[in-house]
Amino acid sequence: MDILTPMETTALLLSLRVAGVAIALGLPVAVLAAWVLGRYSFPGKTLVDGLVHLPLVLPPVVTGYILLVTMGTKGVVGGWLYQTFGIKLIFTAEGASLAVAVTSFPLMVRAIRLSVEAIDGGLEAAARTLGAGPVDRFFTILLPLMAPGLLSGAIVAFAAAMGEFGAVITFVSNIPGQTQTLPLAIYAATQEPGGDAVAARLAAISFGVALIALMLSEFLAHRVRRLIGQT
Amino acid sequence: MLDLSIRQTLGAFALDIAFTAEERGVTALFGRSGSGKTSVINAIAGLTRPDAGHIRIGDTVFFDSALRIDVPVERRRIGYVFQDARLFPHMTVRSNLEFGLRRVPAADRRIAFGPVVELLGLGHLLDRRPRGLSGGEKQRVAFGRALLAQPRLLLMDEPMASLDAARKAEIMPYIERLRDEMNIPIVMVSHALDEVVRLATTMVLIGEGRVRAVGPVGTVMGRLDLSAVTGAQDAGAVLDLTVERHIPEDGLTVLAFDGGHLTVPRVERAPGASVRLHIHARDVIVALQQPVGVSVRNALAATVVEVAESGPSSADVRLAVGGSFLIARITRAAVRELDLTPGRPVVALVKGIAFEPGSTGAPAEGRRVVDV
Fold first, then answer.
1. Where does B22-164 have alpha helices with state H?
2. Nearest Cβ partner of A130 from B84, B130, B145?
3. Residue A14's CB: how many other CB atoms inside 10 A?
4. Do B338 and B189 share a structural domain?
5. I need a surface site. Which of B59, B121, B206, B241 has the fewest CB within 10 A?
C-alpha cells in the first residue's frame, strides 16, 4: 500500500481484526444478556446487571489485571485452557480480542437492552396466540425489532474496542504485529525519540476509522428502521 | 361447546366466573370497565393462569387445575383479536396475515388465505405496512390474521373500542360476516350495549368478577334486576323480529314477532329477513285501554310481569308481550294510580326504537333512536 507504511497497515489490520473478533463473539452473548435483563425478572438480577456493567466503571487497567490473573497460563481459567486445549491467550491477538470484548460488552448490552425494552410486549403475546413458541418469537419478532439497537450497539462497541488501551496493554502487552493495536502503536511511537510524526499519522488513521464507523452506523440504522417499518 | 369455570385473584379483586357457550354464534361478555371481562378471555387464551377451575372446548381440555393441565398459549390455537390490533410493524399486511397460517400443518388448514382476504376486503392492502393503515383497516387485518391461524375459538377484546363511530360502523358488518359465514364460535368482550345488541347471540353479564346473568340477549336485557349492571340509561328490552311487509307509500315497514306487529320507518331488508331492535324503557308508555286520538301507532297487548323501583321517583315495569318482553320506565305515581300489579292486562305503546346502524338499513353515521 502506498498511503500507509507497512507498520501502519499492520497496526490498522490488527486493530480491525481484534475488534471484529471481539464483537462477533460478544454480540450473541450481549443479545442474550439484554433479552434476559430486559424481559425477565429473577432473583439476583441486580447482581447480574452489576456484573455486566462492571467493566464500564472499573479502570481498564484493573480489567486487564483481572484477566491477567485469571486467564494467564498460570491463572485458573487460562491454565485450564492452556493445558486442555493448548489455547494461549496472554500475549496473543486472541487475548487482545478477549480484553476488548470484556470492556466493550456493557456498551452493547445497554444499547440492545434499550431496544428490547422498547418492544411492545403485546406483540409477543399476539405471536403466542398465533402459535409461535419462545425460540420462534425470538427470531421472528424480537430480533428484527431490536435490530436498530443491536446495530448501533455493535458499531459503538466496535469503535470503543478499536480504541481500548489499558485492558489490552495490561493483559497482552505491546508486541508489534501480535498485540500492538492502533492506540498501543501511538503510545509506543510517543515513547520513541522523533516518533511524533508516526504518532500523528496513526492518530489520523484512528480518526478516519472512527468517523467512518459513525457514518456507517447512522446510515445502517436508518436503513434498518425503514426495513422494519418504524419510519 | 365452550365450558368455562375459573377462579382467580386479581389484586384485591376476586374473579369467579362460570358459563357455557354454544359452538356457533357470538357470546358477548358484557359489563363495566374493570368488571373482569378481559381477565376471562385472557384466561381462555392462556395469557393468564387461573388459580383454579377448568376451560374446555368440546373434548379438548385447555386448563384444568384438578388434572394439572395447562396447555401453553401457542398450542391452544385460540384466536385473539386485541383492542389495539397488535400487528407486527416489521412485516407487510400479507406477512402478518400468514404468520399464524404458516404455523399450522397443511392438513389442518380449513380457512384459506384468498376467501379471508376477500371477506375482510384486504386485497389492496397486502403489500402495505401496518404503520400506514387506518384504525379500522388495522383491526380488519387483525381479524384476518387471527382467522387464518385456524382457531377453534375466536376471542375479541373490545375490538371496536379504539375506533370512532364511523370506523365502528365500517367494522361491524365484517364481524357480522365472520359470525354468519365462518363456522367458528366467537367470544367478544364489550362494554358497549349497541355492539352486544347487534352482534351477540348469547349475553354473559359480568359485574364485580361474577356472572350476573347468562342467556339469549333478549332474555337478559328483559330482566329488571340488571339495569344497575347494564347502565340505567340503556335499560330496555331487545326484540327479535322478522320483516313482514313494506308500505312504500308511507315509507314504513311492518315487523312481526310473537307478541304482535310493530310499524317502523322503512327497513331496507327483504320480507322474511330478521331484525333485532333495542327498545329503551323510556320509550315505552303503559295504558289501560287501547288509546284513541294519540299519534303513537304501535300499541301492543301486554301483561304486567313485575315492577321494580329504578330511581327516586321512577319504576321499571316488565311486560310480557306474547313470548317476548318489553320494559317500560314510568313514574311510581303512575304505577300506583294505574294499579300496575303482576297479572294486570295493559297496552304497551312504543314511541321510539333504537336502530343499530346498518343492521336495519338505517344510516351508518351512528346509533340513533327513531320515533315511531
1. 37-45, 73-76, 93-101, 113-119, 135-148
2. B145
3. 21
4. no
5. B59
* Closest CB from B82, B90, B103 relative to A132: B103
Say if residues A1 and A9 touch (Cβ distance below 8 Å): yes
Q: Which of B323, B319, B310 is nearest to B230 (CA)?
A: B310
**DSSP count for chain A of H helices, then E strands:** 11, 0
pLDDT band at A158 (very low <50, low <70, confident <90, very high): very high
Instruction: Return the closest-CA partner of residue A35 out of A125, A143, A156.
Output: A143
Q: What's the predicted TM-score (pTM) here? A: 0.80
Both B29 and B151 in one domain: the answer is yes
Test A131 with B103 for CB contact under 8 angstroms: yes
Q: Which residues contact B114 (CB under 8 A, 6 or more apart)?
A: none
Tell me the pLDDT tens digit for each residue of B44-91: 999 999 999 999 998 999 999 999 999 999 999 999 999 999 999 999
**Average confidence (pLDDT) over B13-23:** 88
Of A113, B297, A146, give the one whose Cα is nearest residue A137: A146
CA distance B344 to B364: 40
* Residue B325, pLDDT above cutoff 50: yes
Looking at the complex, does the CB of residue B145 fall below 8 Å from at least one CB of chain A? yes
Q: Is B103 part of any domain?
A: yes
A125 contacts in B (CB within 8 Å)?
47, 73, 80, 82, 86
**What is the extent of the structural domain holding B134?**
2-221
Residues 6+ apart with CB under 8 A from B297: B263, B372
Distance CA A218, CA A225 (A): 11
* Contacting residues for B185 by C-beta, under 8 A, at least 6 apart: B2, B21, B22, B23, B24, B25, B27, B57, B153, B154
Residue with cell string 307478541: B259
Q: What angle do CA A131, A134, A138 make, to 5 degrees?
A: 105
Q: Which three cell numbers stand for residue B243?
A: 320483516
Q: How many Å apart are CA B24 and CA B201, to the nearest integer?
A: 9
Contact between chains at A130 and B99 (C-beta distance less than 8 A) = yes
Cβ partners under 8 Å of residue A168, min gap 6 = A18, A64, A96, A99, A100, A179, A181, A183, A184
Give the distance from residue B249's alpha carbon to the nearest chain A alpha carbon, in angstroms.
53
Selected residue with higher pLDDT from A138 and B224 = A138
Question: Are both B287 and B205 inside the same structural domain?
Answer: no
The reply to whether ipTM tops 0.85 is no
Contact B104, B149 (CB under 8 A): yes
Instruction: Give how many domains chain B has, as a whole number.
Output: 2
C-alpha distances (whole Å) from A205 to each of A19, A180, A185, B190 are: 15, 15, 12, 65
Alpha-carbon gap, residue B142 to B84, rounded angstroms: 9
Q: Is B356 strand, coil or helix?
A: coil
In a domain, B53, yes or no: yes
Whether residues B324 and B215 share a domain: the answer is: no
Residue B256: strand, helix, or coil: strand
Q: Which run of H or of E encompasses B219?
A: helix B217-221
Under 8 Å between Cβ of A189 and A201: no
